[in-house]
Amino acid sequence: MTAHHYDVVVIGAGVAGASLCLQLARQGVRVALVEKGTVGAGGATALSGGIVRVHDPDPFLSSLSAAGRNLLLNWSKLGVEGPSPYTKSGVYWLKSDQPGRSIATDTRVGRVADFPRLNFLRERSDPLHVLYEPDSGYVDARRLCASLVQSAINLGVDVYENTHVVGYEVSTSGEVTVRTHSGSFTAHKVALCAGAGFVQMTRMEGAYVRSIPLVTVRANSVRLETPIIDETASTYMRPLRSGVFFCGSQKWSVPGEEFDRKAVANDALKRLRLVLGRNVDIEVINVDQKYDAYSHDLRPVIRFIDGKSVLFLGCLSGRGVKYSLAVGVLAARKLIQSMSGHYQESVWDDCIGEELPMLVTQANSDEMVDA
Ligand SMILES: Cc1cc2nc3c(=O)[nH]c(=O)nc-3n(C[C@H](O)[C@H](O)[C@H](O)COP(=O)(O)OP(=O)(O)OC[C@H]3O[C@@H](n4cnc5c(N)ncnc54)[C@H](O)[C@@H]3O)c2cc1C
Predict the structure, then answer these.
(1) Mean pLDDT per segment of 10 residues, for the chain of length 371 residues?
(2) What's the longest Cα–Cα distance across the chain?
(3) Whose CA is nearest to atom 47 of ligand 1?
(4) Domains present along the chain, CATH in parentheses
(5) I need a surface site. Which of 70, 115, 223, 266 has the fewest CB within 10 A?
(6) β-pairing, 183-192 with 310-314?
(7) Residue of the nearest CA to atom 18 in ligand 1?
(8) Which is it for strands 137-139 and 158-160: parallel, antiparallel or unpaired?
């Protein structure tokens, strides 16, 4: 391969890289998307439970999730390839204490008895508070990713699959050379969207990598079409098909550590029994895991790590599918500002006041296609 030249080389075709590529392509930026495996299949995106909810103890993450969800809700206006990957099923969040501030205006708050579909929880003795978000739901993350990339290809983005990036260099003039196992690319900017891959490679300060287990269970007696996040049991249930659910476990590992399937399955079962009661028949039918990159405050990172040419977009901290469309818009904006010389580093808290409410408004208006 000879060195192809682009405005931006995006490394990693998970939801973050895919969303960024599309936003850049919409603005006429010449982009290469380079992926060591295949689109949406290499990292956390491949296995994501895809729950989309807005409530979050951190008001910033709540705003970001609202922005991401609104973009998903307006799929037909986004002009993205294929049918919507989003199922607006509603989401329940169970809490043991009185809910605090929630920015989601559509959230209904009550007790189990106020929600007839939660009848199967009525035997629980703990005093549960329920938050119900009717506009939330779940998304097929791989299909989302594939649709974003296909739309980017239609706008001229070149996609290089099975192309492993082994390093990059920035020249004194700020131009970047990205080296892969089969040749190199040159670009004005590079965007590192390699999920756990990059953090592991560079040991980036303030970031860490851990696995996220995904346990598939069968519980034939449970009729559930709506994801439940149970804060008390630290788990979730996400309907997959009749009587079959994804659920979580708190047994994770770091790279290099053994993946103990049995411990993960047992922990998942223990937590589910807290949700459903001891007598419900539950069978584990699969246990899997993928790595994701985390930041210490669980907020995603979008930052030029060298001040000008290398944008890091990552640390989606196990929650990234719900706000991937929003972070793609914000990261594209940073790159485009930087290429036109109008870039000013802002802190996330500035976004709560300015950029995120704007994204929510844009998603609700007819002008979204060009945003
Ligand atoms: C089991 C599980 C359940 C989850 N559940 C939810 C949920 O319910 N709701 C939610 O919102 N989020 C959830 N998440 C989190 C969400 O899926 C992730 O935060 C998000 O998918 C991360 O996307 P990404 O694009 O940053 O990274 P990834 O999807 O990991 O993509 C990174 C890509 O970079 C590629 N790459 C890495 N290194 C290189 C290299 N050197 N050269 C070229 N390419 C490279 C990888 O192959 C990969 O395709 C879950 C994640 C997991 C694993």
Answers:
(1) 85 97 95 98 96 89 90 88 94 86 75 91 85 96 97 97 95 95 96 87 78 95 93 94 94 91 96 90 96 92 89 93 94 91 60 52 36 16
(2) 67
(3) 42
(4) 1-86+138-206+296-371 (3.50.50.60)
(5) 223
(6) parallel
(7) 320
(8) unpaired
